[in-house]
């Protein structure tokens, strides 16, 4: 079983990526192979439906998304929504990649909670017929990480691990 963890943050020291890695590690422990697609490290050009020029990253991205049995998708909250980089990446894929597959959502906020980003991502992914799991995770500016990448707060650690394990469990169930 394969999951793609799509990181929509472009920050060097991304709280979104750190939180998403907690979910990804839990998914690995639950038996999934997880490919991390970090848009900072593997950027995509601006989506243009008329541009037919081959792009190595776009082809690899679409292939990874095609092969995935489920997804972990994360974004920091910018102006009460997901990043443009993440939305742009999602424009390259669609129904063919997400139909009937589980999706776990992660967000990071500069304030209390990234509710708007999580809600907007859920709407986008549901429109693509993905199964957005009920458990979501939001990291605030005051949430801290240990040197090993785990959360200092054990309740947050548990919450983000559950996102990863729930995506794996649902993917296994849907595959029969």
TrEMBL record:
GO terms for cellular component: cytosol. Residues 1-136 form the NADPH-dependent FMN reductase-like domain. It holds the Pfam family FMN_red. InterPro entries: Flavoprotein-like_sf, FMN_Rdtase-like_dom, NAD(P)H-dep_reductase. GO terms for molecular function: FMN binding; oxidoreductase activity. PANTHER family: CHROMATE REDUCTASE (PTHR30543), NAD(P)H-DEPENDENT FMN REDUCTASE LOT6 (PTHR30543:SF21). Belongs to the azoreductase type 2 family. This is NADPH-dependent FMN reductase-like domain-containing protein.
């Amino acid at each position: 079983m394969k999951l793609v963890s799509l990181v929509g943050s472009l920050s060097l020291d991304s709280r979104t990526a750190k939180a998403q890695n907690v979910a990804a590690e839990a998914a690995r422990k639950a038996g999934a192979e997880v490919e991390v697609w970090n848009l900072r490290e593997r950027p995509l050009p601006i989506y243009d439906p008329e541009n037919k020029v081959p792009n190595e990253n776009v082809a690899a991205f679409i292939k990874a998304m095609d092969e995935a049995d489920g997804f972990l998708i994360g974004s920091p909250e910018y102006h009460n929504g997901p990043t443009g980089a993440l939305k742009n990446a999602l424009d390259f894929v669609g129904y063919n990649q997400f139909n009937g597959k589980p999706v776990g959502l992660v967000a990071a906020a500069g304030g209390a909670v990234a509710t708007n980003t999580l809600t907007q991502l859920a709407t986008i992914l549901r429109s693509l017929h993905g199964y957005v799991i009920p458990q979501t995770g939001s990291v605030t500016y005051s949430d801290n990480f240990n040197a090993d990448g785990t959360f200092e707060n054990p309740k947050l650690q548990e919450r983000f691990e559950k996102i990863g394990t729930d995506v794996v469990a649902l993917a296994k169930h849907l595959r029969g």
